[in-house]
Amino acid sequence: MSLPPGFLDELRTRVSLSDVVGRKVMWDQRKSQPGKGDLWSPCPFHHEKTASFHVDDRKGFYYCFGCHAKGDALKFVQETENVSFMEAVEILAGEAGLEMPKRDPKAAEKQDHRSQLAEVMELAVRFFRLQLKTQAATEARAYLARRGLGGEALERWEIGFAPEGWQILWDALKGKGVADELILGAGLAKPSNKGSKPFDTFRNRIMFPIRDARGRAIAFGGRAMDPKDNAKYLNSPETELFDKGRNLYNHGPARAAAGRGTPLVVAEGYMDVIALSEAGFASSVAPLGTAVTDTQLQLLWRISDEPIIALDGDTAGVRAAMRLIDMALPLLEAGKSLRFAVMPEGKDPDDLIRAEGPGAVQTLLDQAIPMVRLLWQRETEGRVFDSPERKAALDKTLREKIKLIRDPSIRQHYAEDIKELRYQLFRGNRGGQSGPGGRGQGGSGYGQRGGGYQSRSRNQGGFRDGGRAPWGLPPTPRATTRSSIVASNEGQDFARMREAVILATAVTTPTVIPEFEINLERMQCVDAEHAHLRDLLLRHGIDAPERLRDEIAHALGPDALENLLSLRHVAISPCVRKPGDLEMAGLTLTEEFAKLESIAGLSAELAEAEEDLDGLADEALTWRLRQAAEARNRAVRSENEDKATYDVGENGARLNRDERDAFGALLDRIGFTEK
Predict the structure, then answer these.
(1) Is the pLDDT assigned to residue 168 strictly greater than 90?
(2) Helices of type H across 38-179
(3) How far is CA 456 from CA 114, 337, 568, 615, in A?
(4) 584: left (phi over 0), alpha (psi -120 to 50) or beta
(5) Nearest C-alpha neighbor of 34 from the set 18, 45, 21, 49
(6) Which residue range or ranges hold the Toprim domain (predicted)?
(7) Which pLDDT score is estimated for 433?
């Protein structure tokens, strides 16, 4: 939704930052001077005893001198309530008595229809809750009591009951004047194929309302009371309100709890989430009848940087964890990962809580293993590696998995961890028998003279024979790798320069952003400020380009854009000199993204070629090195063109020399001469 010019300024004028922050903190009376709008408190974003969190009420900004958190009232609501920007605007506008701007007629009509559907869903919630108190729900109430849910919990989770009968809910809603198309559109009934009136979607089921992050009822999950029912659990069909792959059960409450510092736990079903929350694990969610989707994974990462996946301790639960690993690997970012807490065999979190109490669950959560360990366990547990071929197959499988990781830094750390696990598996283990968790058992030592790898010394960064590691990246970079354009400090400078030009081009000509949205999303920024600016471009540059600069100023401070645009290699860019030239901006971004990709591809090719060096070069390797040489030459030519056009100066020439030195050292090592 696009906000009109001046709306945010009016909102910030009406809202007092000290009032907004004051709901979350206790002001330090000794340091604070309320009359001057100068207020201090312990920081709400990190644990501390001293008052290092400063609010300047007159300027409308806060800053923590401990964790360096900063922003305005909107930013504070976003961070403390775990809500999106527009949700924060709506929250503060409601408090300030400022009416949200109206949408265009078509959008308003669509929103009105969605609001009507949500109202029908609320009627259904109330109907099912009343039905749980009837004689027909005696068995359902007994089942819920056996699962440890008392009256307060039933009210808190709004659990209800759908009685047997084909049109009981339908007739109840029609009796309240609800139109047919709204009942059908909400997924509460289905049309009959026999020409009779529609029939209820849910019958003889315990009903769990599903609410979105804003608290609106959008769907239901129903647990069958009949053990012979084909579907034990049944979710609402997808509707205008409900997309099961884009929502989470208990999303809103879990997000609020996670914002207070509790770990985010991902369980499999409704009862698991309810049991966990009632036991004190308030930030618990579950996917809605499917395996976790990539969209749901992004939702989880918005709530917490490292969700804990608490899966059932059965074959299906472990299999779901393995599928999640494969999906998550390409999406990993620095600081964004997953940990896994696998329940005891045959138990889910609800079973464990009822059998052993919350402490048992807490122990498992504390012992949750990182994703790399579960990946290793999947590929090694229960398998025998008693031949070079089997060991090579393991290396190939793991190499392919790690190549899925897009972030080069994370990819390197995964390689190092797996390499250490491989060393532990095969040291002193000629037989290669894997035990629990991939641990080796017995054997006389893999890597004795005459075959394999030498055992690695604990106080060395590599192998005693000086050879390369069995797979992945070496523990410490070689000289040639250190001088690679991406691995080096100069390489980071190069990438930072390219990022700056890309971001400045997008800021000065925001209409080009939609065309390059995917490229911006995939751009791995080496500079944290660049990454923040990239996120702001993606968040506001498409829907509201007219207020993009204002949002950047409020998020990063008034000097952020000035500092970016004043950089010499940015200031002389034709796009910055001629803002709004869409064609020039498109050409510039195409070229700049190509430069980043060519240098990254060259560095990856050099690193992979280093892995494959084994004293002699074969035809395939020399062909690959020629390709790398050509990529190097293209990058060098492009950078030299920059130097001629933009006068990047001495730093640009040094980058080229370093890359030539790195590449030349690699060619010399194998005795390859480029013709």
Answers:
(1) yes
(2) 73-81, 85-96, 105-131, 138-146, 151-156, 168-175
(3) 63, 29, 48, 20
(4) alpha
(5) 18
(6) 262-344
(7) 47
Question: Measured between alpha carbons, how far apart are the two ends of the chain, in Å?
Answer: 59
Instruction: Identify the helix (H) or strand (E) that includes residue 315.
Output: helix 315-328
Per-residue three-class SS string for 596-627: HHHHHHHHHHHHHHHHHCCCCCCHHHHHHHHH
Q: Which residue has the tokens 């709506």?
A: 90
What is the domain partition of the chain in residue ranges? 7-96, 114-242, 246-367, 384-424+431-457+468-476, 489-670
User: Do 7-96 and 246-367 fold alike per CATH?
Assistant: no
**311: phi > 0 → left, psi -120 to 50 → alpha, else beta; which?**
beta
Please compute the mean of the pLDDT values over residues 395-406 and round it to a whole number. 92
Tell me: pLDDT of 490 over 60.
no
Amino acid in position 281: F
- Cβ atoms of residues 494 and 526 within 8 Å: no
Instruction: Dig out the tokens for 145 from the structure.
Output: 């009591």
Integer Cα distance of 182 and 428 in angstroms: 69
Candidates 267, 235, 238; CA nearest to 254 is 267
Q: Which helix (H) or strand (E) element contains residue 582?
A: helix 582-612
The rounded percent of the chain whose pLDDT value lies above 90 is 30
Q: Which of 284, 287, 300 is nearest to 332 (CA)?
A: 300
Domain spanning 114-242 has what CATH number? 3.90.980.10
Q: How many residues in total does the chain contain?
A: 675
Kind plus residue range of the DSSP H or E element containing 570: helix 568-571
Residue scoring higher pLDDT (486 or 380):
380
Q: Which fold has domain 246-367?
A: Dna Topoisomerase Vi A Subunit; Chain: A, domain 2 (3.40.1360)
User: Tokens 């604070």 — which residue?
Assistant: 32
Higher pLDDT, 611 or 181: 181
pLDDT top residue among 257 and 618: 257
Whether the CB-CB separation of 474 and 462 falls below 8 Å is answered with: yes
C-alpha to C-alpha distance for 442 and 423, rounded to whole angstroms:
14
Cα–Cα distance for residue pair 662/607, rounded to 1 Å: 11
Kindly provide the b/e burial profile for residues 337-370, where b requires at least 16 CB atoms within 10 angstroms of the residue's own CB. Answer: bbbbbbbeeebbbbbbbeeeebebbeebbeebee
196 or 4: whose pLDDT is higher?
196
pLDDT tens digit string along 362-378? 999 999 999 999 999 88
- The string of DSSP codes covering 200-248 is ES--SEEEEEEE-TTS-EEEEEEEESSTT-S-SEEEPPP-SS--GGG--
Q: What pLDDT, on the 0 to 100 scale, is given for residue 269?
A: 87
Backbone angles phi, psi at 143, to 5 degrees: -60, -45
Nearest-angstrom CA–CA distance, 392 and 180 = 63
Name which of 494, 482, 489 is nearest 649 in CA terms.
494
The dotted CATH code for 7-96 is 3.90.580.10
Q: State the SS3 of 17-76.
A: HHHHHHCCCCCCCCCCEHHHCEEEECCCCCCCCCCCEEEECCCCEEEECCCCCEECHHHH
Q: For residue 286, what are the β-bridge partners?
A: 249
